[in-house]
Amino acid sequence: MPVVGVSGILRKEQEMWESTDKSLQDAFQDLNALMSKAKEMVVLAERMRLKLLSGSNNQTSGTNDEDMGTKEEMQDWLLSVGIASPVTKESAGALYHQQLSRQLADFVKKPLEMAGGMINLIDIYCLFNRARGTELISPDDLRQACSLWEKFDTPVMLRKFDSGVMVIQNKTHSDDEVFSRIRSLVSKPDALRTGISASDAAMTLGVAPAMAKEHLLAAEGKGLVCRDVSPDGFRFHINLFPEISPDDRYLVKDHGIYSMWISAISSS
Length: 268
Description:
By secondary structure, this protein is mainly α. Helix content is about 60%, strand content about 10%.
């Protein structure tokens, strides 16, 4: 019937609300189905992983390296699906943060290995929640779980830089090794002339630019590099001040980093 008068407007509004309500119901049905399927996939992945592990323990000595590599890749893929039994407040009760801390310590091993031994706390928060599926945790729960690592004998630790950035790193991670690589980078002829950026250090260290900048700032705090702030951003140079003689500031030494810097500047 044609839409005429107030009754027609009311009928059109009613049809619009009914259509919206149906769309919402369909959307939530799809979401519930997705959540149930996700849990089923995690359970299936855990069963397949256990079957692979039991098969690898009972395998004969005639198994070749190619088969072993295929099984290891399958195990890594299954583990990436998610955490089969995530710790929850309902299941753990008063021991929630302790059990969450241990589960988190086991989870971060693979991401830390891929990130070079150190990873941003925000990145771990995203990765861990994605692996937990629908059982998400809050940022406060994550920080409390990380803070408990000091009481447990775990191979990882929570670290806070002077800038306030918080990261998770392996206890075997050596700052001296990182500083040595930064020193080698800033001592190259091109770096002696123009310095390096956080992106340059990131490529050498194999970390994200934000993490590379934190390493450079830490190296600056140790007196290894000096910063230059320009419209182009931060650039870091080798610290030449320790090699300058206070008695003769214009003395050009024929050895050391100072001499290399003079040569690089002269050639440019």
